[in-house]
Amino acid sequence: MRISISWAYQQSLATMQAQQSALAASQNEVSTGTRVNLPSDDPAAAAQIVGIGHTLAQNTQYAANIAGANTRLATEESTLDSVTDLLDRARTLGLGALDGSLSAQDLQGIGTELGQIRDQLLQYANARDANGNALFAGTGDSKAPFVRNADGSVSYQGTAVQQRAAIGHGLTLPTGDTGAAVFMDIPAGNGDFVASAGAANQGSLVVGANSVTDPARWTSSVAAAGGGFTISFGAGGHWTVQDAAGKPLTDAAGQPLGGDYADGGSIAFEGLSISLSGTPAAGDTVHVTTGTTQNVFATLDGMIASLQGGNATQLGNAMNRQLESLDRTLDTVASTQVAIGGRLDVLGQQGAAYASLGVTYQSALSNARDADPYQAISQLSLQSAALQASQQVFVAVKSLSLFNYLR
């Protein structure tokens, strides 16, 4: 078999080019610290690197969402703390107004402070988060969700849908509460019903604390009564009850339901109890209504209005009803804060999980992508030596010629 010099040159050149290419790859591996710089370097590892990269990017976004949700919820929680302080102060002022020794000027001063509290509360209701978005607008835009109308009342212009953030695959969490739920749609009275003295009452009857004592009986009786009752007083404080249609309620014997009321006593029927004070005049009434709501701004307006004129009986009845509504608002704010605390706990757990997963995924990514520096340097040295040897062999082969022997 005849081997030409040209063929020997080509073989040597091909070998050196292959070795130079391998050497360049090793040099790149050593300088970058990664062994997979192109998919062709290791197709299986390249696919794994892409998959881990996508997962890391997704988890990074979830972690950013969690951080944003934490900030927003912490801001809401702090705002509601301030709201609670305001409402507690309003409650203290309302209770103080029931002191019969206060002068008209004292009551006017209380009304002025309640007006200031109402204005501060409106500011808190329109509070914004770190990004300038309204905390209590729901999914509405960034404008103030609460506006004061020409008649002094307050309207809500946000939505009734909570903002939510994606904090995991298929997992979302509310990052705020709507102004409708926190400030507007507050159950009136004790939360189950409102017991209010009739506007035309002539006696000194004042409606005090009231509650549902038998929920099951109350639920069935109020449905049968058409949503409410009227307690009517006759001579000597004798009382009877009619349903919403004016039909008298009867006892088990078929007799009209009623009894005799004494000052400071209470009236109980159909699973409810109402505490009273004072003496009713014949024809006086107490109305029990259900299913009504009252926003906190209207409650504060009602407290202010109750201080403007009227006798002690009228003040007591009006202020007691507003204090009941104020207590329901405090309950709503407190339950909202409890919900926020639960969400913050979930965010903390989810954030810790992503931090741990991040370490795991980064380790897997490093295993698939990064080069072993000792192995890479050793490989580089071997390839460099091999290239030098090939070059020396080429020099030796190049000098082999028949003419060298003929000289």
Could you explain how this protein is built, in words?
The protein folds into 3 domains: 1-35 and 384-407; 53-187 and 326-357, f41 fragment of flagellin, N-terminal domain (Up-down Bundle), CATH 1.20.1330.10; 194-292, no CATH class. Helix content is 54%, strand content 14%. It has 9 helices and 12 strands. It has a 5-stranded antiparallel beta sheet. It has a 3-stranded antiparallel beta sheet with strand order 6-11-10. It is elongated and about 140 Å long. It starts with a helix and ends with a helix. The relative contact order is 0.15.
List the defining traits of the structure above.
5-stranded antiparallel β-sheet; single chain; f41 fragment of flagellin, N-terminal domain; alpha+beta; 407 residues; 12 strands; 14% strand; 9 helices; 3-stranded antiparallel β-sheet
Summarize the structure.
The protein is of the alpha+beta class and 407 residues long. The protein has helices at residues 5-32, 43-97, 104-125, 179-184, 215-224, 296-306, 312-369, 373-398, 402-406, and strands at 146-148, 154-156, 164-168, 171-174, 194-197, 206-212, 228-233, 238-243, 258-260, 266-269, 272-277, 285-289.
- Figure out the total of helices: 9
- CATH architecture term of the largest domain: Up-down Bundle
Number of strands: 12
Whole-number tally of structural domains = 3
Structural class of the helix and strand makeup?
alpha+beta
Q: What is the share of helical residues?
A: 40-55%
Q: Output the CATH topology of the largest domain.
A: f41 fragment of flagellin, N-terminal domain
Return Rg in Å: 41 Å
